[in-house]
Design a protein that fits this description.
The longest helix is centred in the last third of the chain and has 15 residues, at 301-315. The protein is α/β, with parallel strands linked by helices. The chain contains 7 helices and 15 strands. α1 (11-22) packs parallel to α7 (301-315) and α4 crosses α5 (198-207). Strands 1, 2, 3, 4, 5, 6 and 15 form a 7-stranded mixed beta sheet that branches. A 5-stranded parallel beta sheet has the order 7-14-8-9-10. The protein has a 3-stranded antiparallel beta sheet with strand order 11-12-13, with no helix packed on it.
Length: 334
């Protein structure tokens, strides 16, 4: 029997596995894709907001060429850490359900059944976009992820959203020859857009390089157009591609199948102990961004990696100093 099965091989899942070993626990990581699969889905050459020391795990230094890590550097860093730590990885293996109880869990995957004393779910949210639920959303020209601008040269591109992902995609596509229209529900750009990106986007809109339509929603996606509704009523605009960058959410169907209770709040937050991260199902823990529910901006690698420290100390029966996670956003993990 394995002491701990960790579902998810993102940075926080890997941090959990490293911490488990240092607490004398045997751990296995089960991942439906590859190591840090969500980072693989990030835009090419995306720069992280944080400096490298804030997203290091396991005490392994994170060397970078610039001041902040790029997507490619982060993917290689976490892969190398997983290899150097000899983490027991079960990749491309999806967890279907978690049977049993504390000290006698049976983690059922599409390939095997793994016996475990404890289970940690660190699945993040990036794999599950917030869908528009409108006609035409399943057309090939629609994507909820942005990788790079080159396919959109000379094309009419609609970017749906008004936060960081949408802002960066709109700027990138415009600079590489796309005709970009930004469509947003709100009356203006979100204040959550990073401080060095927002003025750039505002200036491009003022110059007319990017068309912005606020208080506007998409009602239908057609082969070569979009039906939209704004302050002046219904309209139809020409369109070749849609980047629906409307955010992401945890896999609630899996959380509910795992027996995790969800709070009746505006964020659909999973219920867990704020210090040990144990859920109402004894022996089952959650870690990382999934803890925030639909409030996906609450937890990051920087503070989420500390969940590993708290969880594994609790499983090992060790005391830990209470942490005020709401006030201490930047915590140095052991």
């Amino acid at each position: 029997m394995t002491d701990v099965v960790i579902v998810g091989a993102g940075p926080v899942g890997l941090a959990c596995a490293i911490r488990a070993r240092r607490e004398g626990l045997r751990a296995a990581v089960v991942e439906k894709g590859n190591v840090v699969q969500s980072l693989v889905g990030y835009p090419v050459k995306m720069e992280f907001f944080s400096t490298p020391e804030l997203i290091e795990i396991g005490g392994h230094p994170f060397p970078v060429h610039g001041n902040k890590p790029l997507r490619e550097e982060a993917i290689e860093y976490y892969r190398r850490v997983a290899q150097n730590e000899n983490i027991r990885l079960r990749l491309y293996e999806r967890v279907r359900r978690i049977d049993g109880e504390c000290d006698a869990f049976r983690v059922v995957t599409d390939k095997d059944v793994i016996a475990a004393r404890r289970v940690v779910i660190a699945t993040g949210f990036f794999d599950y976009p917030n869908l528009l639920h409108i006609p035409g959303e399943d057309l090939p020209k629609v994507t909820h992820y942005y990788k790079e601008p080159y396919p959109y040269f000379g094309q009419r591109v609609a970017v749906i959203g008004a936060r960081n992902s949408a802002a960066k995609a709109a700027l990138d596509c415009s600079r590489h020859g796309a005709r970009v229209t930004l469509l947003a529900r709100g009356t203006e750009l979100s204040n959550r857009i990073k401080y060095w990106i927002k003025p750039d986007l505002e200036n491009r809109i003022k110059q007319g390089a990017i068309t912005a339509r606020f208080e506007t929603v998409v009602r239908e996606i057609r082969e070569s157009s979009l039906v939209i509704e704004g302050p002046e009523g219904m309209d139809e605009i020409g369109n070749d591609y849609v980047l629906a960058l409307t955010g992401y959410r945890p896999d609630y169907s899996f959380l509910e199948t795992a027996g995790i209770e969800i709070a009746a709040d505006e964020w659909d937050t999973p219920i867990f102990d704020p210090q040990s991260f144990e859920t109402t199902r004894k022996g089952l823990y959650i870690a990382g961004t999934v803890c925030g529910g639909r409030r996906t901006g609450r937890w990051f690698i920087e503070n989420g990696r500390v969940h590993a420290q708290q969880i594994m100390r609790h499983i090992a029966g060790r005391e830990f100093e209470p942490v005020d996670f709401e006030k201490r956003h930047w915590i140095t993990a052991e």
